[in-house]
Design a protein that fits this description.
Helix content is about 5%, strand content about 40%. It is mostly beta strands and about 190 residues long. The protein has one domain: Jelly Rolls. The protein has a six-stranded antiparallel β-sheet, with no helix packed on it. Strands 9-8-11-6-13 form a five-stranded antiparallel β-sheet, with no helix packed on it. It has a two-stranded antiparallel sheet with strand order 3-4. Strand 3 and strand 4 form a beta hairpin. The radius of gyration is 16 Å and the shape is globular. It starts with a strand and ends in a 24-residue tail after the last helix.
Amino acid sequence: MNLIPTRVCDVFILEPAVFGDERGWFTESWSEREMERNGLYYRFVQDNHSFSAKKGTLRGLHVQKGDQAQAKLVRCVRGAVFDVAVDLRKGSPTYLSWVGAELSAENKRQLMIPRGFLHGFVTLTDDVEFLYKADRFYCRDAEATVIWNDPDIGIQWGEKNPIINEKDALGKRVADIDFGFVYSGTKEENRTT
């Protein structure tokens, strides 16, 4: 596995090794041992799978607050997305900064997003299937939604009029929500074992 740091603290692009021959290909999409060799210690408890029919569908920006905060390992297994993480940890050198990466069935890249980050994506193709692992179970009471085009964040989605649902259309500004995340500056912050 190739681990690529991004411009936002503690968010990494993962490129798994892919082995192919005339029959097709094989890859390990998740290996706790490989993650730990790279200093990432996560225990995932829930897998999620979404389907988006149309190009330009935007899902996000979502987060779970407090003790229900989730780390996520995300990937696209059909089609392509532009995936985004936003640092909400007060005191972080990259507080309120965002990073985006194209994840696709073709490039097999994944994005590792620790706790304390907003997450969202926009589809770049029709018929997208998106998978993500979470280290805590979904909790509706802890969920918060930030409006996708919040000017305080300034994400460049590449889509001016995305297809969004009512919940995401009613998202709040990041300045109007107390997330309670604080950056400690240690690797222990992202340890979920």
